[in-house]
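Morning!

This is the sequence you dropped in the shared folder:
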Amino acid sequence: MARTVFEKSDAITRVAEVFRELGFEGASLFEITERTGLSKGSLYHFFPEGKEGMAAEILADVDGWFVREVFEPLERDEPRAAIAQMWRTVDSYFRSGRRVCLLGAFALDETRDRFAKPIRLYFKRWIEALDGALVRAGADAVIAKSLAEDIVGSIQGALTLARALKEDAVFGRTLARLQQRTDAVLPPHRKS
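The structure's back. C-alpha cells below.
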C-alpha cells in the first residue's frame, strides 16, 4: 500500500476544515486524525505546538489569503473594481454560504480570548480596507465607515444564518442586498 506524503499546506487546509465543522474545542486530536487522514506523528511534525499551534497557523493562513485576495485589492486597486471583485471573491471563498468563516467561528467560541488579536486584526483590516475603497469611490466618509461595518457584519451573519437554516441561498441574497446598498451610496460612475 502506497504511503501518502503530505505537505504542510495540505495539513493546514485539512485541519482548517475540521475546525470549521467542529470548532476549536470540538476538534479533538482523534477527530482531527480521523477526518484529515493525517497521523498523530504528522500532525506533531507540522504543528509541534499542538492543537493551539494548528489553530494559530490556520488563522494566519486564512488571514494571509484574505490580505492577498480581498484587503490589498481594496486598498490599492481602482475602488469600484476592487469592491466588485470583493463580492465575487467572498462568495467563492465561502462557497456561496456553505462554508463557515473560521475567524468568525473562533470569535464566537470559547477560543476567542486565545486568538483575540488575530481575530480582531482580521475584521478591523477588512472594515478599514472596505471603508477606504468606498471613500475613494466617492462615498461620504461617515456613511462609508458605517456601511463597511454593516457589510462585514452582515456577511458574517449571513454565513451563520445560511448554516442554521440549511439554506445556502440566504448568503447570496444577503450579498445581493449589500451590493445594492453599496451601489446606492456611490455617486454615478463617470467613464473617462
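Headline: The domain at 57-185 is CATH 1.10.357.10 (Tetracycline Repressor; domain 2).

More detail when I'm at my desk.
O.
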